[in-house]
Structures are given as structure tokens and as C-alpha cells.
Amino acid sequence: MRAKISYVITAAVLVFYFALVGSRGVMLIGTGTPLTVTFGVAVLILPVIGLWFLWKNTQFVRKANQLAAELDAEGGLPVDELKRTPSGRVDRDSADEVFALRKAETEDAPGDWRSWFRLAVAYHDARDTPRARKAMQRAIALHDGKHVEAA
Fold it and tell me: Cα–Cα distance between 56 and 64 in angstroms, integer?
């Protein structure tokens, strides 16, 4: 729940920032000189890109959470079987063992969104965020019935 609150607060701050920057762009355009209009248009592009990025990330998180809820209802969420250090961090060797199991599971069923979801969790536990995100994107695409190219 704390992560959701943090995400909402961060998104709200970003939207406020984008609105502030956008208003400055409009003010620059309003002065009417070629240079300020050019700068104003350039300044307006940044909030548009930022809003698009925020929207895409929000959609990704929402869809990943929907998959997690569905998998939980089926009883298929991966069990936290990782060993931890005394400080509470995941033991790297333990994460590697679980990752190997999840990778083999995914290789056996490459069209199953559930195995890709569990692989994404294993990548996350192994602190490989880019691959975790790609695996989750594949799980979402497979769940939604979209064609996914082989990796």
C-alpha cells in the first residue's frame, strides 16, 4: 500500500511540474517573437513526453497488478523461497537458483503468461530490472492475446 501511495504522490508532483512547465511554454509562445515561439514550442514538448511516459508506466503497473491478482486467485503466485542475509537482503546464490528454475519453466512453456510472470519476479529478485520489465511486458502481451516475437 505504501508503494501505491508513493506512486500517486510522485505522479501528482510530476503532473504539477508538467503543468508549470507547460504554462511557461504558453507564455513564451504568447510573446510572439520567432525566438520565443520556438523556445515555447520546445518547452511544451517536454511535458507532452513526460505525460506520455507517466501514462505508459501507469498502464504497465496496472496491468502487472491485474496479472498478479489473477495469478493469486489461481494460487499460482511464486512462493518467496529465497534465503536472506541477516540484514534481510536476498541471498544472491538463492536468487540464482530460483531464477534457473523459473527460466527452465518458461523455456518449457514459452506461450504461458504465468511462467513469464514468475520469470519477471525472478529477474526482479536477482536485481535485473530491465529484464524483469521485458519479461513482465511479455507476460502482459501473452495474457492479452497479442502476438509476441521470440526472444
Answer: 12
Q: Distance (Å, rounded) from C-alpha 2 to C-alpha 76?
A: 24
Global pTM value: 0.77
> Is the separation of the CB atoms in 39 and 27 below 8 Å?
no
Q: What digits encode the pLDDT tens for the residues 45-69?
A: 989 999 999 999 999 999 999 999 9
> In Å, how far are 111, 118, 128 from 147, measured between CA atoms?
10, 20, 25
* Residue 36 DSSP SS3: helix
Contact (CB, 8 A) for 43 and 21: yes
Distances (CA, A) of 89 to 14, 32, 128: 31, 57, 15
Cα 132 from Cα 141, distance rounded (Å): 14
> What letter does residue 88 receive in the DSSP assignment?
S
